[in-house]
Amino acid sequence: MASSRIKILVLAAVIGVFGYLYLNRKITDSHFAVLPGHIENFTAINVDGGKTTYQDEKGKATLITLSASWCPACMAEIPMLKKLHDEFSGQGFKVLMVSEDDNVKIAAKFKKKQKLQWTVVHWNYDLMNVLGNPGVLPVTYLVNNQDSIVQIHSGIFEEDDMRSSIKKLLK
After folding, report:
1. CATH number of the domain that residue 124 is part of
2. Which pLDDT does position 6 carry in this prediction?
3. Which residues contact 143 (CB under 8 A, 6 or more apart)?
4. Rounded distance, CA 32 to CA 149, Å?
5. Domain boundaries, position 82
6. Is the pLDDT assigned to residue 147 strictly greater than 70?
7. Which parts of 37-157 fold into alpha helices (H)?
8. What 8-state DSSP symbol labels residue 124?
C-alpha cells in the first residue's frame, strides 16, 4: 500500500515538473548570464572520441540542444529530436547535442543507449560562455547558416513550431 502511494507521488511530481516546464518554456533573460544572438565557433570533446568544433558540425540549419541523461525534460525531448533529425537531416539540418553529464563516459553511454544519430559533445566553460551560460535544462538554440540564433527555447520545445521554423530555414 505504501509502495503504491510512493509511486503515485513520484508520478505526480514528474507530471508537475513536466507541466511547469511546458508552461514556462518561453525564454527569459533571467535564465542566462548573457542572452546570445550569434554562435561563435567553439571546440568541445566529441563523446565518440577526439575533439570537434561548431564549424565542423553545423548545417544549413542547426539545432543545438543542451541536455543531460539525468534530466527528465531532456529525456522527453529525445523522441522529438529523433523525428526532426530523421525528417530533415537529408536537407542540411543538423542536431548538435551538448551533454551536461558529469563526464564524457556517461555522455557516451547515454548516446549509445538512446541510439542518437547526431554529434554529442561534452560541455566545457568556453562552450557554455558562447551559449550564454543558461541556468536551466533543456535549452535549444535554432541557428541559421550564418550562425545567427533564430530561436531559443528553455524547457521542452513545441515540436510542430520547431518543425515549421526548421522548414523556413531550409528553403
Report:
1. 3.40.30.10
2. 73
3. 39, 58, 61, 62, 63, 64, 149, 150
4. 14
5. 2-170
6. yes
7. 54-57, 72-88, 104-114, 125-130
8. -
